[in-house]
Amino acid sequence: MNSQKVSFKNSNGYLLRGRLELPANQEPHNYALFAHCFTCNKNYFAVKNICNALTQQGYGVLRFDFTGLGDSEGDFEDSNFSGNVEDLLEAAEFLKIKYKAPSLLIGHSLGGAAVLFAARELESVKAVATIAAPSKANHLTHLLKDDLEEINSEGSAEVNIGGRPFKIKKQFLEDIEDKQLKKILPELDRPLLILHSPQDTVVNIKNAEEIYVAAKHPKSFISLDGANHLLTETRDSVYAGTMIGTWASRYIDVAEKIEIDTKFEVAAKLGAEGFTTQLQAGNHGFIADEPIKAGGKNLGPSPYDYISAGLAACTSMTIQMYARRKNWKIESVETHINYAKDYAKDCENCLDDMSKIDTFSREIIIKADLDKEQLDKIISIADKCPVHKTLTTPTQVITTLIKE
Predict the structure, then answer these.
(1) What is the per-residue pLDDT across 179-190, written as a single tens digit (0 to 9) for each?
(2) Whole-angstrom Cα distance, residue 378 to residue 370?
(3) Per DSSP, what are the bridge partners of residue 35?
(4) Which residues contact 352 (CB under 8 A, 6 or more apart)?
C-alpha cells in the first residue's frame, strides 16, 4: 500500500488533513471516500484496516479528519452533522480535481449516516456502504443523555465519549434532530450495502433493519456477527473492507488489466501522461514508476530499482545454487543493493562529474555454518552471477522503431 498525506480546505476555510491510500502495484481502478465515526479520526486502526483491504483490491481510498478532529483545523464544538456532510462534499471535490471523483462512499457509525446524505449530491458515486450506521442521526443523543439537560439549559456541556472529553453545543443537537435517514433513503437511487453486528450495543441491529426497509433496491446486508461497534478485532475490520470491495465491484467500472501483446520477452507500455508504466514479462504483469519528487506517483519501483532487484535476486540464486551443488547448508541468503552514480576508485579527475560511473553497492547476509574458506568462495561466486556479469561487461542495445 502507498500512503500519501493530503490536505484541502472546507467551505469554512479550515484545512482538513487526510491520507490517500493507493494500491502498491497499480493505478487505482476507482476511488473511495471514507467517513469515520463520531469523535473518531482517520487514524483509527479499524479505518486503516478497511482502507488497506480495499487498496489490495485496487481501490484508491481517501480517509480524512472531520473539522475539529485529529489533524484537521477548526473547533469540534462548533461543528455539526451538516458540517460533516459538507466536509465529505469538499473531500469528493478534492479527489475529483486532483485524482478522480469517488465512485464509492463508505461510512462508519454516524459517518455512515453522513455518506448517505452526501451521496445525494455526488453524481460520481455509484455505490454506498455503511458500517454500524444509525437509522436516525439523532441516535447519538442517547450517549449524551446524562448531559442533555445541561446542554439545553446552558447552551453547551463537556461530555465524556469513549474516555475523552468533548464540548457539545446545543446547535449540534438541533442540527441532527431533523436529519432522518428514513426520509431520504427512498429517494437515494444508489446501490446500498449495510454492514452491522447483531451484538452491537452502541447502535442496535434494529437500525440496520430500519435502513434496509427504507432503502430502494438494489440493497444488500452483511452481518458482522461477533463484532463490536468499533470493530476492535482486526479480523472484523479486514473482513468488512474485503466484503465492501467485492460487493462494490458489481456496480462500478473496473477495467481489466491490460496484457501487452508482444513476441519479446519483456515489454513496457506508457500512456500520454505521467510515468506509471505497464510491464509484461512472460505471463507476469506489473508496473514501474518514478518517485513523487521526480514527477511520478510512486506506484511501483523505478527502472533502476528493477535493475538493482535483478542483481539482488540473481546474486542470492547463484549463491544458493552453488551451495546446494556442494551440499553446503545455507538457511537463507539476503542480498541488499544500493545504486548511485559514484567516482571510480582509481579516477584521475575526480572533480569532474563526467568521471562518475554507475555503482552498485552490494551487501550479502547469509545464515549458515560455513568456515572462512567457504565464505571466501561465496564472495567469488557472487561475482559470477549472470546479471553481475551483464552489468560489468560491454553490452549493446539494438533498437527498431515501429510507428502505429
Answers:
(1) 778 788 998 999
(2) 10
(3) 107
(4) none
Phi (first) and psi of residue 54, to 5 degrees: -75, -40
Q: What pLDDT score was predicted for residue 339?
A: 93
SS3 call for 279: strand
DSSP 78: G
Percent of the chain with pLDDT over 70: 89
* pLDDT confidence bin for 390, thresholds 50/70/90: very high
Closest among 69, 62, 25, 63 to 42, alpha carbons compared: 63
Residues 6+ away with beta carbon under 8 Å from 223: 195, 196, 197, 198
Per-residue pLDDT tens over the stretch 250-289: 999 876 665 667 788 888 888 788 888 888 888 777 888 8
The predicted pLDDT at position 140 comes to: 65
- List pLDDT tens digits, range 307-329: 999 999 999 999 999 999 999 99
**Which domains can be identified in the chain, with CATH numbers?**
2-248 (3.40.50.1820), 302-392 (3.30.300.20)
φ/ψ of 98, rounded to 5, equals -90, -30
d(CA 206, CA 203): 8
The amino acid present at 223, given as its one-letter code, is S
The pTM assigned to this predicted structure is 0.67
Cell of residue 69, nine digits? 478532529
Long-range CB contacts (within 8 A, 24+) of 331-336: 331/367, 331/368, 332/366, 332/367, 333/364, 333/365, 333/366, 333/367, 334/364, 334/365, 334/366, 335/311, 335/362, 335/363, 335/364, 335/365, 335/382, 336/312, 336/362, 336/363, 336/364, 336/365
Cell of 51: 482502507
What distance lies between CA 256 and its chain's CA centroid? 20
User: Tell me, what's the pLDDT at 352?
Assistant: 56
